[in-house]
Amino acid sequence: MKAYRLSHGGRIDGLQLHDVEERPLDPHEVRVGVKAVSLNYRDLMVAEGGYPIKNDTPIIPCSDGAGEVLAIGSMVTRVQPGDRVAASFFPHWFDGQPTQEKIASALGGDVDGMLAQAVTLHENTLVKMPDQLSYQEAATLPCAAVTAWNGLFESSHLRPGDTVLLLGTGGVSIFGLQMAKAAGLQVIITSSSDDKLARTRELGADETINYRTTPEWQDEVLRLTSGKGVDVVLEVGGEGTINRSIAATAVGGNIVTIGGVSGFGGEVNPRSLVTSIKRLSGIYVGSRAMLERTAAFIGGAGIKPVISNVFPFAEAQAAYRHLQSGKHFGKVVIDLTQ
Ligand SMILES: NC(=O)c1ccc[n+]([C@@H]2O[C@H](COP(=O)([O-])OP(=O)(O)OC[C@H]3O[C@@H](n4cnc5c(N)ncnc54)[C@H](OP(=O)(O)O)[C@@H]3O)[C@@H](O)[C@H]2O)c1
């Protein structure tokens, strides 16, 4: 069996294929033949050494993958051979509120992830995927889709007709767009590219703003909402966007603090939150139960995850470089059957 390995900070060049020996299954373990893996911005951060993990040994990277159950241990009850499954981002956060113990490790960070022809996981990590999703599509759910789901529907209390602001057209934001529209929400989305904004319109975006040509885009958000602001922002921008996102949010609204594609530094003035009763709420992907709810919603609503580019297993480095280029729209996928 072949698997990629990568050290924290090992750079994309350090992503190399290795032969890995498969060991016998423990009673509660499951062997999954991985069919597809999707990349997240986090996978670039791990390669660049900018992710908060303590493990120096090379790990199998990537949290997000989907595949077929090949074999099960003697006590396994959650899945059967032949089931189509994906793994949950945090192997120990099954449900309920997060705790230090529940989020202590995540696939493709402190522990081995999914960029391998086969992976061995505890049965409790696995979730069955909706039949209508291909393996490539199912592989996009565990991090990006769950994060968007959590931000919109678990950490926020939106109602149909409320307005959501999405930043850029990466994995989290495009899932945010698709789920928000399926739930009857109004969507304002930004991008550096007019072509990408045209594609968001095809997916149902109500209003679009080019953040390059409109650098004071928070003013445009206020104009588009008659001065009120949006109810929720999925804040993936970080340092360069968070204060604009706060300014673009309505009284009582929620700035779901997710990422930092423009950097993780910066300062926030408490007054910008206090007197307008806005919440800054950090989220970190979500639990296995959230992955189950996300999969049920995506399956039930007939949402087709937006896959920007697919690379064969042998070209994983090229897939990483494509994500790094920022040319993608939605998700970048590595197909292990190619
Ligand atoms: N907390 C969590 O649980 C969690 C989970 C998933 C992701 N994240 C974080 O969320 C962020 C996005 O992740 P992702 O996987 O969706 O990334 P991604 O697919 O790589 O998308 C990044 C997109 O961000 C946009 N962008 C870049 N600079 C920007 C700026 N200054 N202002 C607004 N948009 C900008 C670009 O869109 P355009 O090309 O359209 O301009 C780019 O394509 C990352 O920081 C990631 O670490 C956090």
Can you describe what's shown?
The protein is α/β, with parallel strands linked by helices and 338 residues long. The chain folds into 2 domains: 193 residues, Medium-chain alcohol dehydrogenases, catalytic domain (Quinone Oxidoreductase, Chain A, domain 1, Alpha-Beta Complex), CATH 3.90.180; 127 residues, Rossmann fold, CATH 3.40.50.720. The protein contains 10 helices and 15 strands. The strands form 3 sheets. Strands 3, 4, 5, 6, 7, 14 and 15 form a 7-stranded mixed sheet that branches. Strands 10-9-8-11-12-13 form a 6-stranded parallel sheet, with helices on both faces. It has a two-stranded antiparallel sheet with strand order 1-2. Strand 9, helix 5 and strand 10 form a beta-alpha-beta unit. Helix 3 packs across helix 4. The radius of gyration is 20 Å and the shape is globular. The model has no long low-confidence stretch (mean pLDDT 97). The structure holds NADP nicotinamide-adenine-dinucleotide phosphate. NADP nicotinamide-adenine-dinucleotide phosphate binds next to helix 1, helix 3, helix 4 and strand 9.
The arrangement of helices and strands along the chain is EEEHEEEEHHEHEHEHEHEHEHEHE
> Tell me, what's the shape?
globular
Q: Structural class of the secondary elements?
A: alpha/beta
**Total helical elements:** 10
Which stretches of 5+ consecutive residues score pLDDT under 50?
none
Mean pLDDT: 97
Task: Tell me which CATH architecture of the largest domain applies here.
Answer: Alpha-Beta Complex
Q: List all distinct small molecules, including ions and cofactors, that are bound in this structure.
A: NADP nicotinamide-adenine-dinucleotide phosphate
